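Repro:
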Amino acid sequence: MSNVAAEPEAPRAHARIVYLGPVAPHWEVYGDWGERQVLDEFRTRALARLVLLPRDDPQFRRNKERINRDAERELISIEWELGLPTDDDADES
């Protein structure tokens, strides 16, 4: 038996999940690159978990983790744009 860990595979696609604001629809999923069918299927699953769910809802954190695991399984790199100020933004003010 080998003790060598498997090499992580390169992503097949990349998606951005963007919070649009407090008025529904709250979310959009953009496919930046990768196979269109893979991104469309991921978008459908992600939006099903996020529909009518603002980012401040307690269920959002649980669903975000589920979406992250789904993306990891499907080898899709994702980035979240939640519209929150970052630490860098606070330093510049």
